[in-house]
């Protein structure tokens, strides 16, 4: 207990006692003074004898304990000494192992770097070899073309088509330009031979078609090939028809024969030759003339016209107006948007179906433009035109509002007695736009309106400079700063995207125009400083707009939210923000 000391609990419970011979606070002087004062002589002698016996007993116990554990102490000392030696050996071995691991790691890094370098060099070598093979193939192109042009013209055309793009890309290099020039000369000779072959009267319809297809691959003019094809085909059909007519007997000059004489040959042989020769050749030629019809009619006429129409219509919205040139009328933008939308919905599919029925495309023929791709182009053009229409009309209304705010003295204005004329003009223009758009587009879906939309109060909040004054439509529990209140309201209100794409319906178009107009009014009010009557005039104008504009929008909360921001900005910019009583505002607006 003297060595380890008392436990914390015992130390906390036991008070310091200097006379406790077994306690941590034992004091011999205090103990002896207490014993001398309290014990008689006989008791002191007995206590002395008892202490002597205890001391001798303790010494004996300690000697016995030491004798019994001496060998263990010696063995433990030797063991610890050996462990220290072994530990030193282990440390040395660990150091050697760490050095070996570092050497191995360095060697591995060198091997990895060598392998990566070898791989990189191998990839470079493979790339160089591939490039050399391509260059060798390009160098051999003229020789191959020359050897195949006379015997296998189709193979020569395939070889030239593969090499043409590369030769055009590197034609700025003299060696590639020389190869390209030589190849062009060979292909020009091939085109000349094919032209000569095309004029041969002994070609059958299949050979004639193959000759024309190869000339088209050589980028020969399609119009000239079409004329030569029709000329050769017509001459061949006339020759076969003349051969059939020659087999018919001569007509009776007197005209007395009651029945036509039979042909010189058997009638069955005559019909068979007519079917297999003239009619068969006519069908083959008609089928062949169809690498012209698909390309010229479907792609060159129908598809090209639709794309030109979409591109031209979209140009009214995308193209910058020339200086002094009048802008496109809004009604034209709306009509073109409706036209492109109708093309996307039905016209394109109908025209392409009709064209494919008359001129069906071949599986092995040239690729044709799919209908969905044209429909997507028409819809994109319609969307761009309708968005531009909303921006133009919104800008026109916004211009009126901006001028009405900028040209008015909002500090020195008199107490409002009427709604300003510009607000009435805004409502009239929005109504006219509603009628115009309604003639071309569907109504659209409106959000369910509240029962008192037209009577909802247009609130103007007072600022901290005039505590206790506020509009009847808003009753705060304690006066608060208008700017802080406005920011708090924005946290819980839906974000209004002013220039978002509009949908193809009337309410979406009108909502877009209203958002642009009211956003302009808000930004203009933020830049002005208002007096008391100026704030009240904004209150009257805003309530008037709320009475009429909500019915045009897809969601009345958009109109109310923007007008609330106008009111809050006006109150924040006002030097004496005292709003007008709401009953008076309603009376002025109803009278206006």
From TrEMBL:
UniProt gene name: Vps51
Location within or outside the cell: Golgi apparatus, trans-Golgi network; Recycling endosome
Coiled-coil residue windows: none
Domain of life: Eukaryota
Family statement: Belongs to the VPS51 family.
Organism of provenance: Sylvia atricapilla (blackcap)
Official protein name in the record: Vacuolar protein sorting-associated protein 51 homolog
Gene Ontology BP annotations: endocytic recycling; Golgi organization; Golgi vesicle transport; lipid transport; lysosomal transport; protein transport; retrograde transport, endosome to Golgi
Protein task: Involved in retrograde transport from early and late endosomes to the late Golgi. The GARP complex is required for the maintenance of protein retrieval from endosomes to the TGN, acid hydrolase sorting, lysosome function, endosomal cholesterol traffic and autophagy. Acts as component of the EARP complex that is involved in endocytic recycling.
Example of a GO cellular component annotation carried by this entry: cytosol
UniProt xrefs under Pfam families: VPS51_Exo84_N
Region (Disordered) residue spans: 1-25
Quaternary organization: Component of the Golgi-associated retrograde protein (GARP) complex. Component of the endosome-associated retrograde protein (EARP) complex.
Keywords recorded for this protein, A-Z: Endosome, Golgi apparatus, Lipid transport, Protein transport, Transport
Subcellular location, principal: Golgi
């Amino acid at each position: 207990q003297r060595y380890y000391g008392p436990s914390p609990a015992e130390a906390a419970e036991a008070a310091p006692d200097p006379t406790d011979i077994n306690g941590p606070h034992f004091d011999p002087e205090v103990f002896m003074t207490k014993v001398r004062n309290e014990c008689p002589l006989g008791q002191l002698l007995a206590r002395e004898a008892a202490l002597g016996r205890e001391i001798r007993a303790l010494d004996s116990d300690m000697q016995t304990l030491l004798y019994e554990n001496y060998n263990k102490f010696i063995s433990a000392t030797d063991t610890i000494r050996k462990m220290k030696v072994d530990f030193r050996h282990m440390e040395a071995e660990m150091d050697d192992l760490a050095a070996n691991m570092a050497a191995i790691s360095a060697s591995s890094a060198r091997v990895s770097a060598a392998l990566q370098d070898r791989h990189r060099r191998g990839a470079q070598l493979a790339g160089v070899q591939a490039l050399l093979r391509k260059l060798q193939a390009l160098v051999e192109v003229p020789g191959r073309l020359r050897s195949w042009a006379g015997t296998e013209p189709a193979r020569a055309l395939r070889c030239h088509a593969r090499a043409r793009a590369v030769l055009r890309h590197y034609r700025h290099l003299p060696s590639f330009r020389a190869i390209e020039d030589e190849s062009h000369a060979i292909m020009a000779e091939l085109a000349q031979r094919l032209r000569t072959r095309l004029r041969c009267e002994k070609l059958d319809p299949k050979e004639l078609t193959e000759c024309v297809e190869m000339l088209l691959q050589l980028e020969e003019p399609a119009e000239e090939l079409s004329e030569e094809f029709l000329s050769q085909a017509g001459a061949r059909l006339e020759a076969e028809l003349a051969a059939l007519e020659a087999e018919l007997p001569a007509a009776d000059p007197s005209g007395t024969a009651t029945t036509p004489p039979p042909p010189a040959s058997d009638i069955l042989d005559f019909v068979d030759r007519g079917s297999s020769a003239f009619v068969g050749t006519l069908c083959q030629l008609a089928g062949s003339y169809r690498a012209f019809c698909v390309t010229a009619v479907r792609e060159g006429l129908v598809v090209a016209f639709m794309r030109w129409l979409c591109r031209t219509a979209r140009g009214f919205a995308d193209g910058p107006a020339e200086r002094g040139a009048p802008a496109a009328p809004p009604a034209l933008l709306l009509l073109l948007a409706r036209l492109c939308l109708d093309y996307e919905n039905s016209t394109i599919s109908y025209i392409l179906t009709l064209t494919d029925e008359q001129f069906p495309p071949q599986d092995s023929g040239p690729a044709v433009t799919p209908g969905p791709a044209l429909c997507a182009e028409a819809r994109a053009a319609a969307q761009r035109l309708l968005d531009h229409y909303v921006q133009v009309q919104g800008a026109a209304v916004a211009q009126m509002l901006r001028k009405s705010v900028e040209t008015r003295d909002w500090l020195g204005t008199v107490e409002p007695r009427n709604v300003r004329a510009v607000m009435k003009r805004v409502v009239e223009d929005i109504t006219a736009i509603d009628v115009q758009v309604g003639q071309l587009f569907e109504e659209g879906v409106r959000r369910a309106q509240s029962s008192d939309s037209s009577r909802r109060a247009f609130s103007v909040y007072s600022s901290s400079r005039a505590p206790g004054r506020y509009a009847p439509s808003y009753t705060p529990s304690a006066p608060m700063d208008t700017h802080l209140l406005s920011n708090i309201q924005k946290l819980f209100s839906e974000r209004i995207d002013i220039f978002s794409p509009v949908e193809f319906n009337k309410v979406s178009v009108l909502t877009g125009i209203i958002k642009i107009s009211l956003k302009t009014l808000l930004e203009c009010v933020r830049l002005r400083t208002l007096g008391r009557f100026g704030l009240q005039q904004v209150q009257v104008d805003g309530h008037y707009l709320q009475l009429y504009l909500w019915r045009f929008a897809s969601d009345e909360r958009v109109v109310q939210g923007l007008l609330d921001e106008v009111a809050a900005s006006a109150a924040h910019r006002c030097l004496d923000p005292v709003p007008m009583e709401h009953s008076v505002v309603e009376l002025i607006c109803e009278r206006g």
